[in-house]
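TICKET: design request
STATUS: open
ATTACHED STRUCTURE:
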């Protein structure tokens, strides 16, 4: 890796990804940091910290500094960015500053972040010793990463479902024409499963267990009975406080996820309703592309197709699309132009 290599970052609520042009995707780890409760000393980051969730002693806490796709704790986010960049830099010396060389960073953010949130992301990137930082809206980065020809005078529609937020956007001529960002996504799916199990079975399960249920037997809808899968789930009985094992099937999970899934589908319909007719015609011809980890929920694409009447596909690199797009965008600065936010002027306004 050359010392000044530019870096693309998907600063996800659930997963932190780093992409470089020469090496591709170099890091994909949970956006979790573990620290001592009193001194705030960082003990672990990423996968190691994620394994601590729900299992830490009283003096250590594992937290997610990114909430709903934006920075909830600027200090911890800066530390997390710095430590992840150290991981991909390896033993090449001082982080990003070895020999005076500093990279440019391109960071993906949800499409409706506020000015305060933009500044927080840019400051965190610059404080990690980057030369310059740019922000790109996640659906635009996802479209680039998924291989869509976003610079053409044609409409493309992307539905990016991450961990903390879902972004729906129509893109043409290198920019976003209409969009909507919803703070409902993969993490809300997990919370909905936790609430469902608690309400139906009087059993309390943790965040990691809910995620495992979602992956193993989850679905947005069932096409036929043969798709109904069953999983054994362990949790704590809320009546007697003892461990208990229950069975959940796909029908249960479809019911549990009905509310957040419907909110995303309604968001897609709202964006289509305000899209210029010419671009809607393009979308009907080209279809809707889904990206993000949430798009991998079984049959979500089929539900969206049945609801909108438009062909829907899931990108082959759905999870990595935003990260790949941020890295590729660094070679498209002149083309993307006003679609990006640069630290050069934004922090000096």
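STATUS: resolved
RESOLUTION: sequence designed for all positions
ATTACHED SEQUENCE:
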């Amino acid at each position: 890796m050359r010392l000044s290599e530019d870096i693309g970052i998907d600063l996800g609520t659930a997963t932190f990804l780093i992409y470089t042009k020469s090496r591709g995707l170099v890091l994909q780890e949970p956006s979790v940091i573990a620290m001592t409760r009193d001194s705030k000393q960082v003990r672990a980051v990423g996968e190691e910290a994620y394994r601590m969730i729900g299992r830490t002693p009283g003096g250590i806490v594992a937290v997610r500094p990114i909430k709903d796709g934006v920075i909830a704790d600027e200090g911890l986010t800066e530390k997390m960015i710095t430590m992840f960049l150290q991981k991909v830099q390896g033993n090449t010396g001082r982080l990003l500053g070895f020999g005076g060389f500093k990279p440019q960073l391109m960071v993906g953010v949800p499409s409706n972040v506020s000015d305060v949130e933009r500044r927080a992301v840019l400051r965190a990137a610059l404080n990690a010793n980057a030369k310059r930082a740019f922000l790109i809206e996640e659906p635009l980065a996802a479209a680039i990463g998924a291989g869509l020809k976003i610079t053409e005078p044609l409409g493309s529609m992307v539905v990016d479902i991450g961990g903390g937020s879902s972004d729906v956007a129509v893109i043409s001529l290198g920019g976003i024409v209409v969009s909507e960002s919803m703070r409902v996504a993969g993490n809300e799916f997990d919370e909905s499963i936790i609430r469902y199990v608690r309400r139906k079975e009087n059993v309390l399960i943790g965040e990691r267990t809910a995620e495992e249920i979602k992956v193993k037997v989850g679905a947005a809808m069932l096409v036929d009975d043969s798709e109904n899968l069953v999983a054994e789930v362990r949790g704590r009985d809320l009546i007697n406080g003892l461990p208990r094992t229950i069975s959940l099937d796909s029908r249960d999970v479809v019911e549990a996820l009905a509310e957040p899934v419907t909110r995303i589908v309604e968001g897609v319909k709202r964006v289509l309703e305000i899209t210029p007719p010419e671009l809607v015609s393009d979308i009907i011809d080209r279809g809707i592309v889904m990206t993000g980890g949430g798009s991998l929920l079984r049959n979500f694409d089929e539900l969206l197709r049945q609801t909108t009447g438009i062909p829907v596909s899931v990108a082959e690199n759905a999870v990595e699309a935003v990260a790949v797009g941020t890295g590729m965008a660094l070679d498209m600065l002149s083309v993307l132009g006003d679609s990006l936010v640069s630290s050069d002027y934004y922090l000096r306004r």
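CLOSING REMARK: The chain has two domains: 7-141+322-346, 148-314. The first helix runs from residue 47 to 50.
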